[in-house]
Design goal:
CATH architecture of the largest domain: 3-Layer(aba) Sandwich
Oligomer: single chain
Structural class: alpha/beta
Number of strands: 16
CATH topology of the largest domain: Rossmann fold
Largest sheet: 5 strands, parallel
Distance between the termini: 69 Å
């Protein structure tokens, strides 16, 4: 047995973990090796792709650090080989300073993370600690924890594909962009990625980018120093500092104004944040997950969103399916929602009549799972307490959603009051959605008083 595998008392201890470092520059190899040895790790070297692949095939490693440019190929070839052979091995790539394209390519190929030259030793230590903290894919404890978490329900092919991709994304530090319609579970997916990742013990900070006034954005994201502006009577951390070591979830990221996009891009690239009123930048270790119901590529095309930020955020895309694309899962999802609602209200859980369930499975759910939850909450209030019938659901038939020209002899804008009510209701619901159902913030967004907001909601039957 190796000396490193024995304790001072002669008893066997856990084998020393080993890192494979691949680089053709001897001085960088020696710097990284010395740092890793001081962290109590064993190190093996390789100076080209061929030698690295031979060593990977010969023995087990706990981590691989590889330069991007090698004499006989690239670090991406090593990443792809590790991914292809399903080795349970995190791999990080060292790229030239400012070469975002290579970093993004490595992350898309399956790299855990990347480092930019010149290699900062603090960043190197942080990356190594994070990579070595990753749970093994078949770790029984991790599987047990994952099964106990609030997850994505259903057995349809669409949701199974999402679950599989979440498992893969959780073992990476790559930025993720989640797309999908409103109410399709984008934040839940982001939380699951965080909960299954190496950052699971650190904060998950969700931010609705569309609900922050533009003049407050910089101080909300990066914090401020005492005296930076009128009312700044103490230092305050922003979202980046609050999420340090964890995950920052940027919901509705397409709503960010262009000046803020520039500052966000710099913070992501440099991994530093400067508080308003400060003369120095502070290092922040944050994983970015973003989401929007808009088409971000279209926003780039129209000039509303910066191409370089889009390229930085959209490294890996996770598309959440609409509820109408997984109709076979509606019974299980509805059952789970009823269990939750009954538990919260401390009442007996009502049963869904077969006709009511059939109606739900035929409905298109423009608001997705969130709308299903609202429908069932309303139905529980209207039902007899034992069974939910089809009338209790109060589903709007598709043909009633619009007044057709043939039925009314118009273009859907008559009678005028019905048309105006419909437009007003849509505007209020959109404002509530953007502000996470904060009525005060929604009223401010709409430019009306809170009292007017409450009156309009009551008049239009918005719960």
């Amino acid at each position: 047995m190796k000396r490193s595998e024995r304790t001072a008392g002669g008893r066997a201890s856990a084998p020393q973990r080993c890192v494979l470092v691949v680089d053709d520059e001897v001085d960088i190899l020696e710097l990284i090796e010395l740092t890793l040895l001081r962290m109590g790790l064993d190190v093996e070297r390789a100076m080209n792709v061929k030698e690295a692949l031979a060593k990977l095939a010969a023995r087990h490693f706990d981590l691989c650090l590889t330069d991007m440019r090698l004499p006989d190929g690239t670090g991406i070839e090593i990443v792809e080989q590790i991914t292809k052979t399903s080795m349970d091995l995190p791999v990080a790539v060292i790229t030239a300073h400012g070469n975002t394209e290579n970093a993004v390519a490595a992350l898309k190929a399956g790299a855990f993370d990347y480092l930019a030259k010149p290699v900062g030793l603090d960043q190197l230590r942080t990356l190594v600690k994070s990579a070595l903290s990753l749970p093994k894919a078949n770790d029984a404890k991790v599987v047990e924890q994952a099964q106990g978490e609030k997850g994505l329900l259903g057995d349809s092919q669409a949701i199974q594909s999402v679950r599989a991709l979440i498992e893969k994304l959780a073992r990476s530090e790559a930025p993720v962009h989640i797309t999908g319609e409103s109410g399709s579970g984008k934040e839940l997916a982001a939380r699951l990625i965080h909960q299954k990742s190496v950052r699971r013990e650190r904060p998950f900070v969700p931010v609705n980018c569309g609900a922050i006034p533009e003049n407050l954005m910089e101080s909300e994201f990066f914090g401020y120093k005492k005296g930076a502006f009128t009312g700044a009577d103490a230092d305050r951390d922003g979202f980046f500092q609050a999420a340090n070591g964890g995950t920052l979830f940027l919901d509705e990221v397409a709503d960010l104004p262009l000046p803020m996009q520039v500052k966000l891009l710099r913070a992501i690239q440099e991994k530093k944040a400067r508080k308003v009123g400060s003369t120095q930048e502070d290092a922040v270790d944050v994983r970015i997950i973003s989401a929007t119901h808009q088409n971000l590529a279209d926003c780039v095309e129209s000039g509303k969103f910066r191409h370089d930020l889009y390229y930085r955020l959209n490294v890996i895309e996770l598309r959440m399916p609409a509820l109408r694309d997984m109709r076979e899962d509606i019974p299980d999802i509805a059952s789970a929602i009823l269990d939750k609602l009954a538990g919260q209200a401390k009442v007996q859980r009502p049963q869904l009549e077969q006709d009511a369930l059939h109606s739900l499975m035929q409905y298109d759910f423009p608001g997705n799972v969130r709308e299903l939850e609202n429908i069932l909450e309303r139905a529980m209030a209207l039902c007899d307490g034992q069974q939910i019938t089809m009338p209790d659901l109060q589903l709007t038939p598709p043909e009633a959603e619009e007044i057709t020209p043939t039925a009314e002899g118009g273009n859907g804008k008559w009678p005028l009051q019905e048309y105006l009510d419909r437009v007003e209701k849509e505007a209020i619901l959109e404002a509530l959605e953007k502000t996470r159902y904060n009525r005060t913030a929604a009223a401010k967004l709409l430019g009306i008083t809170f009292r007017a907001m409450r009156y309009r909601m009551e008049r239009l039957g918005i719960n």
